[in-house]
Design brief:
Radius of gyration: 23 Å
Structural class: mainly beta
CATH superfamily of the largest domain: TolB, C-terminal domain
Strand content: over 45%
Number of strands: 39
Largest sheet: 4 strands, antiparallel
Helix content: under 10%
Distance between the termini: 14 Å
């Protein structure tokens, strides 16, 4: 099973009953700490903004938090295992996920049970704190799930017409029906479930089973839904438009972001929005601040755009100074990242294949006389590739395109002239390559270190 860190959207905050049921890498605990999956680490942001590395894993692909503040993490490179992290960071094994083909949605109830939806099996499985596993529902759309205050699970049938209710003891019944092409779901603290369908219409299903139209004509398809603790509903289009509704259905405001891949709300009602390159915080007055961002260069002169135009622009303008849309012919925008050199004069553009995201490579650019130019990578030169070939027992292919799970990725810059590049030749052999650049942008491999599983736990890799 591959890392699901590229999977869009969020399995968020079990301690809040307002759950947006998508596989995710961002969640809050009850104390207001924000946990984010970043590469192969769980990064913790305290309410005062303090950043720490909470834990490291091999290949984490989802994160969920229960009412007690325990973190559940699926790790695809460690025998496809489910782990629990206590607030003090202690890690324990919960269950094997090897029987799940494509786990894509995860939510917690108030007692610490974790519900995981399997996309290929169209089923929902329940994992209890004592490590037992059971099948909760079959023939369902596992991406549309919600939990109410009484720990009832709501999940949409596979045909998209019926909303099922599953009680904590496993009794199934029809909560509501008559939906067409549902695209999003969320629950509030009052026990109401909101379903976007038709599309562009949000329906409200009350605890007594009555169903009514909550909002319509939204012009949004396959949205992300989430409620805050005051039962305000946020409906986000992945392009970056976020509509806020009061509990009575009155539209309160329209927020904007540079894309939305998932959302979360903290205990004070602030909305956090994750795009492909940043996490934004929206206060109750609608003001926005950037909490985390890889978009801007360290000197704040350049910005990476991944929405309307794929490229680098000068901050404060819409002028594209480096067009990245043509350079990588197999670019998968949703998997693209930028790593800036500390002096902002070089950048690495890491991108994935459009068909197979296991293919990842990098392009490096340098600012020269006010223009961004492409640099040649020595790892692409046959004379230099022999260094890696020797480490791979001479079996490294001449062409990276021949390799499955082939990765070349700049994970960070050690200094303005030195980049650390992760390389994988596809058969379990992994390397950390140190590239040194001179003032003209010429580079050479100064070190190639084989990586063990222990090294991978430090956060290297795809």
């Amino acid at each position: 099973m591959n890392s699901k860190t590229l999977t869009l959207a969020a399995a968020l905050i079990g301690m809040l009953v307002c759950v947006n049921a998508y596989a995710g890498d961002m969640a809050f605990d009850a104390k207001g700490n924000l946990f984010v999956l970043k590469d192969k680490s769980i990064v913790k942001y305290a309410p005062d903004g303090t950043k720490t590395i909470f834990a490291n894993l091999l290949s984490p692909f989802f994160l969920a938090v229960d009412k007690s503040g325990d973190l559940f993490v699926g790790d695809g490179a460690d025998s496809d295992s489910l782990f629990r992290f206590r607030p003090d960071g202690k890690k324990t094994f919960v269950a094997s996920l090897s029987g799940l083909i494509d786990p894509t949605t995860e939510i917690c109830d108030s007692t610490g049970n974790l519900f995981i939806g399997d996309g290929l099996e169209s089923s929902v499985f329940k994992f209890t704190p004592n490590r037992s596993k059971s099948t909760v529902a079959t023939n369902v759309n596992q991406q549309l799930m919600a939990i109410d205050p009484s720990d009832n699970l709501f999940v949409m049938t596979e045909d998209g017409h019926t909303l099922l209710k599953v009680t904590p003891d496993g009794v199934k019944s029809t909560a509501a029906s008559g939906f067409e092409s549902p695209g999003g779901m969320a629950g509030d603290r009052a026990g109401n479930v909101f379903v976007e369908a038709d599309p562009g219409t949000v329906y409200k299903v009350r605890p007594d089973g009555s169903k009514s139209m909550f909002a319509t004509g939204l012009g949004i398809q396959s949205p992300i839904l989430i409620c805050d603790k005051s039962d305000n509903l946020f409906v986000a289009d992945r392009s970056g438009v976020i509509l806020e509704f009061s509990p009575d259905g009155t539209k309160k405001s329209t927020l904007t972001s540079d894309g939305v891949s998932e959302m979360a709300v903290d205990e004070t009602g602030n909305l956090f929005v994750k795009s492909e390159s940043a996490i934004f915080e929206f206060k109750s007055d609608g003001s926005r601040r950037t909490l985390i961002s890889d978009r801007f260069s360290p000197d704040k002169q350049w910005e990476y755009w991944s929405t309307a135009a794929l490229g680098i622009v000068r901050v404060g303008t819409d002028q594209v100074v480096l067009d990245l849309s043509d350079a990588p012919s197999l670019c998968r925008v949703l998997g693209a990242t930028v790593a800036w050199a500390p002096d902002s004069k070089r950048l690495a553009f890491n991108y994935s294949g459009a068909i197979d995201f296991r293919y990842t490579t990098t392009a490096i650019y340098q600012l020269r006389d006010g223009k961004w130019v492409t640099l040649d990578l020595p790892i692409d030169r046959e004379s230099e590739r022999t260094q890696l070939a020797q480490l791979a027992d001479g079996k490294l292919p001449k062409s990276r395109s021949q390799v499955s799970e082939d990765v070349l990725k700049v994970i960070k810059w050690a200094d303005p002239n030195t980049a650390l590049l992760y390389a994988s030749e596809g058969k379990g052999r992994r390397f950390l390559v140190t590239l040194a650049f001179d003032s003209d942008g010429r580079s050479r491999i100064v070190k190639s270190k084989p990586l063990s599983d222990k090294d991978s736990k430090l956060g290297f890799g795809n």
